[in-house]
Specification:
Elements: H1 2-8, H2 12-28, H3 31-34, E1 41-45, E2 48-51, H4 52-70, H5 72-78, H6 81-107, H7 114-123, E3 128-129, E4 132-133, H8 135-145, H9 149-170, H10 177-188, E5 190-198, H11 211-220, E6 230-239, H12 251-260, E7 266-267, E8 270-278, H13 284-299, H14 304-311, H15 315-318, E9 323-328, H16 334-342, E10 353-355, E11 358-368, E12 371-372, H17 379-408, H18 414-420, E13 424-426, H19 442-448, H20 451-456, E14 463-466, E15 469-479, H21 486-518, H22 524-529, E16 535-541, H23 549-555, E17 566-570, E18 576-585, H24 592-621, E19 624-626
Antiparallel strand pairs: 1-2, 1-19, 3-4, 5-16, 5-18, 6-13, 6-15, 7-12, 8-9, 8-11, 10-11, 14-15, 17-18
């Protein structure tokens, strides 16, 4: 193949094409050829994109959260492709809602200051050690999460701005004592019922179906008989984690890493200080003179804590004698920090220090010296880190070669498998909603369902599934989307129509019996003719009943009034039940704490409903375009 390329590159037409390419470089610039393709959009909301990568990240995070919380129960649901499709759509809906709230906050002129962001970050327990903000931990966790300090700050600004809108809504609802009491009485009320279940199957023998009915159902439900476009693929997969077992490290590797990463194994010096703050006010010179006068009192051994309580403008620390608790470098105002860390001994005080907040007098109250973790204590962690680094380096070497082979030999993956000692994997036929891992990724799906791979039967480029996880794929078999013929689905249609008609016949029969029951007639004999008996159920609860949910729901719609205490209920399994309400038990009076808890629950529920209504209203007014998930 390479020989043919070389031969073709010597022809006249090749020279013409090369000339055109050179001219395009001149007029368009090289950048237009080397710029990486932009991330495709999952949705566009009022002109602002939500990227496929953002959707995939949110989807995977939410899926991991539910797997962690519900384990096998969620995995059972996730086996249903329709459920996963709806699940992904719900994640996208949430991202669209977030984008609309973000836009609303911007339109309302809501802002979050740098000081608010800094205070929030410092207070986050994730970045604290022993209750105190630790800058090293902050930096390490940001790197692990893929953030830079400035991008994390921007993320926090966005989240906190959105929260201003949501908190305004969520904090505006309330519940009156009277309605809370009424809701309690209704929720805790129980009912005695009796019911008889009539099997629909008993009516099936008398049901006939015509060809017209089958054809009419088929035509009315054509969409449900559409098949999805399907492909099966073969692919080669590479993960950096799979290379870890091949990595070896030397003692010198470990020592070098320890030296290069010394900051990660060192706890910075921390200081504890108290201060007295005099704000600038309208007269800066007067403020400085006041600070100088207070400094003179401090130097005259007057009680620093008492002076802070009576004179400091920082009311929060003043209550504690000016105490600011522990802090490391990089937290306080630069001028304040420099002056504090310049103090040599506990008990020393500064002269008057000017910062952006005003004039300070600072007293050093304690020191925590820098702590360095010995090499042997972190040896295992270092070994893992070095192996991970080497695995990453090897991963990118193999990735580069995979890319080259995929291009050089586009009609097979065998050369790649042979040269790089990789495993060739394959899938059964799947559609976009039933793709197996790792194919179930927006970038990979869009590629394997693309005309290029289907029609040209070539290898894909190297496709990134996740960080340090790639595949190269090719389509093995393709089935176009189509509508199933009536002959293919006739048996299924007959089954569905028979079930519908049988349930309707059972319902019609039961409604005749209901008329007799309401008139006061004993219907036991009629029920027995259909192999049914009354079953009694005492104190059925509104929620959590073991009964068919349709029976429990209908039981709380009935009243004891004549003619309104019985009904026919269609059951979830296709049968019907004749239901009669016999008694109502009022709820036991709630204690005050229970009512308080219920009131809070009502407020929370209403707030969430109001917030959801706001989002839906914004969606109705917005210009939203979503793309194939």
């Amino acid at each position: 193949m390479l020989e043919k390329i070389r031969e073709g590159s010597q022809g006249v037409w090749a020279m013409v094409i090369l000339g055109l390419v050179i001219l395009s470089f001149v007029f368009a610039g090289v950048g237009s050829y080397v710029t990486a393709p932009t991330d495709t959009a999952a949705a566009v909301v009022n002109g602002e994109e939500i990227s496929q990568s953002a959707l995939e990240r949110a989807y995977q995070n939410e899926r991991a959260r539910l797997e962690s919380q519900f384990g096998d129960a969620f995995n059972a649901l996730a086996a249903d492709t329709e459920y996963l499709k709806n699940f992904r759509q719900s994640v996208l809906d949430r991202l669209i809602g977030d984008k609309l709230i973000e836009q609303t906050a911007r339109d309302l002129g809501l802002r979050v200051s740098d000081t608010q962001i800094r205070d929030t970050i410092v207070a986050m327990p994730e970045f604290q050690i022993a209750g105190q903000f630790n800058n090293d931990r902050f930096q390490v966790l940001l790197r692990q999460a893929g953030y830079q300090p400035n991008t994390f700050r921007d993320y926090m600004r966005l989240e906190m701005t959105r929260q201003q809108v949501s908190r305004a809504i969520l904090g505006s609802e309330f519940s009156l004592p009277g309605e809370t009491k009424l809701v309690h009485e209704l929720q805790r009320q129980t009912r005695d019922i009796r019911y008889a279940t009539i099997s629909a199957q008993q009516f099936a023998a008398d049901i006939t179906l015509s060809e017209d009915e089958i054809n009419t159902f088929y035509q009315a439900n054509l969409d449900t008989f559409d098949t999805q476009e399907q492909v099966s693929v073969s692919y080669v997969e590479l993960k950096a984690t799979d290379l870890l077992s091949e990595m070896t490290v030397t003692e010198q590797d470990l020592l070098d890493f320890y030296e290069q990463s010394s900051g990660a194994y060192r706890t910075e010096e921390e200081r504890r200080a108290s201060h007295i703050l005099i704000e600038f006010g309208e007269d800066r010179d007067a403020a400085k003179a006041e600070a100088e006068a207070l400094l003179a009192k401090v130097q005259a051994d007057e009680n620093f804590a008492e002076l802070a309580k009576t004179s400091s403008a920082d009311s929060f620390s003043a209550e504690n004698g000016g105490d600011l608790d522990w802090f490391a470098r990089g937290v306080m105002d630069p001028a304040f920090e420099e002056a504090t860390f310049a103090l040599a001994n506990i008990g020393d005080t500064t002269t008057v220090v000017e910062s952006e907040f005003g004039f300070h007098i600072i007293k050093l109250t304690d020191i925590k010296s820098e702590q360095v973790t010995p090499f042997e204590e972190v040896r295992t962690d270092i070994e893992n880190s070095v192996k991970n680094e080497k695995a990453s380096e090897r991963f990118f070497e193999i990735q580069q070669r995979m890319s080259e082979i995929a291009f050089e030999v586009p009609d097979s993956l065998e050369d790649m498998v042979s040269e790089l000692s990789l495993t060739l994997k394959s899938t059964e036929l799947f559609d976009r909603n039933s793709a197996p891992q790792p194919i179930a990724n927006p970038v990979v799906l869009n590629t394997v369902f693309s005309p290029e791979l289907i029609e040209d039967a070539v290898n894909s480029d190297v496709l990134e599934v996740a960080d340090e996880h790639i595949i190269v794929a090719r389509v093995q078999e393709h089935k176009a989307a189509r509508t199933k013929s009536i002959d293919e689905v006739k048996e299924d249609i007959e089954t569905r129509l028979m079930a519908q008609k049988a349930q309707q016949a059972a319902k019609n029969w039961s409604e005749n019996v209901l008329t007799s029951l309401i008139s006061g007639t004993d219907v036991s004999a009629e029920l027995e003719s259909k192999n049914s008996l009354w079953e009694e159920q005492a104190e059925v609860a509104r929620f959590g009943s073991a009964l068919d949910s349709n029976i429990a729901t209908e039981a709380f719609k009935l009243s004891l009034a004549e003619g309104k205490n019985a009904a026919v209920v269609e059951l979830n399994n296709g049968d019907v039940s004749l239901l009669e309400l016999t008694k109502i038990h009022q709820a036991v009076e709630a204690d005050s704490q229970e009512l308080i808890s219920l009131g809070q629950s009502l407020e929370s529920s209403r707030s969430q409903n109001m917030f959801a209504a706001l989002v839906e209203s914004l969606k109705a007014q917005a210009d939203i375009t979503t793309y194939n998930l």
